[in-house]
Amino acid sequence: MARYTDPVCKLCRREGMKLFLKGERCFSPKCAIERRAYAPGQHGGKRTGRRKASDYSVQLREKQRARRIYGVLEGQFRRYFAEAERLPGMTGVNLLQQLELRLDNVLYRLGYGDSRAQSRQIVTHGHVLVNGRPLNIASAVLKSGDVVAIAEGSQAKKYFKDLAGLLRERRSPDWLQRNDGSFSAKVIGVPSRDQIDVSLNEQLIVEYYSR
User: Fold this and answer.
1) Model-level pTM?
2) Which residue of 2, 13, 106, 188 is most buried, as measured by CB atoms within 10 A?
């Protein structure tokens, strides 16, 4: 399974904003944006005075930002967009809804992982059940009515024992119904745009692919 393996902090620096790719570190003084708020590379600190970005550049950056927030590679992101175009409704919102319903993102929204990368690891290590069956595909797109749970054998592990005390401080979105006692949750609906907490302009992504 292909995935990004290079340092992720430089992705935040390239986009000029926090993408929250490293969990608690993103809220600490160690965050790369706090220490070096300029693009990576030899000339990263010299780019502030450049001419105004073109429409294409703005659209590209928004697409790249979305990819990096959700941890999706280019080919897979393009397939999500093709599916979003096929579905009824607004293409940009359809795209974000598919990304939000990915299994790794659902675990992140439930607070089971500090970041999407950590949530992805929880899935690939076989700790997750969907509708009572093991599922280790982080990119699986869930649907309304699906039930996600941490496997009973995994709940005895130290990580999940410690997590039980933290969940009280972690809110889950309205489109997920979390049961802290059983380490399970139900997808009660597809999230609307105002329930998707990401700083993205999805229309720019639509314009990028519509060139």
Assistant:
1) 0.79
2) 106
Just give the CATH number of 102-187: 3.10.290.10
Q: How many CB atoms lie within 10 A of CB 201?
A: 14
CATH topology assigned to domain 9-99+198-209: Ribosomal Protein S4 Delta 41; Chain A, domain 1 (1.10.1050)
Neighbours of 208 (CB within 10 A): 19
Q: What is the DSSP string of 6-19?
A: S-SHHHHHHHTS--
Alpha-carbon span 78 to 90, nearest angstrom = 16
Task: Please state at what angle helix 91-100 crosses helix 202-209, rounded to 10 degrees.
Answer: 110
Average pLDDT over residues 16-35: 58
Q: What token pair was written down for 22? A: 């490293």
In this predicted model, what pLDDT tens digit does every residue of 36-74 receive, in sequence order? 655 665 555 555 555 688 999 999 999 999 999 999 999
